[in-house]
Amino acid sequence: MTDSERAQRHRARMQRKKEVIDAAIARADRKQGLLLILTGNGKGKSSSAFGMIARALGHGMRVGVAQFIKGRSDTGEEAFFRKQNHVVWHVLGEGYTWDTQNLDRDRETAQRGWAIVQEMLHDPSFDLIVLDELTYPLKFGWLDLILVLNDLKNRPPMQHVIITGRGAPKELCDAADTVTEMNDIKHAFRSGIQAQEGIDL
Ligand code: ATP
Ligand code: MG
Predict the structure, then answer these.
(1) What is the third-level CATH fold of 32-183?
(2) Distance CA 94, CA 120 (A)
(3) Which of 5, 44, 70, 92 has the fewest beta carbons under 10 Å from its own?
(4) Is 32 left (phi over 0), alpha (psi -120 to 50) or beta?
């Protein structure tokens, strides 16, 4: 095959591909607030959500963040996003269960936290809400899944919600529009490297 025949075949293939992609884009013509779940054991769940916060702010949108399990208070994302006018940042958890070691207090903390989230879920001025590590209070039974699903369902129609955390319950994934599972292939921590600023915190 000559170079020009190869180029001709490539053009024809790309033309067909473009028609398929354009048709798929034309079919997706609805607008609505989305529920996204970022789950799985691999790194990248919370940082993906923070990436979408940056996108939303770039479009002038207003963002609410609720962090349910918070192991440390010196993260780069909190320092950065707290300075942004259009971000409201709530830390609702007191730390990991193995640090707090108090089941009743963990449950109360989660439920107080959910009351704050409910206010945001009733407020259409929030275009995006990030519920970071919400899967844990659900998994441990500190929050009632039915109640949470109901509150999510009744939020303003154009409001986006992103939920992060390992082991997202099936019912939550069923209710979501986009679900991504991060796959843990390798993590530096396991070879003895401590959490690095700018990458892990
Ligand atoms: P990130 O905030 O980096 O996107 P994540 O939200 O996916 O991570 P979490 O389970 O919330 O993961 O854990 C947060 C911290 O734990 C980060 O410092 C992250 O690098 C680290 N981490 C995430 N996944 C793993 C893993 N599979 N093994 C060891 N450490 C991990
Ligand atoms: Mg996380």
Answers:
(1) Rossmann fold (3.40.50)
(2) 20
(3) 5
(4) beta
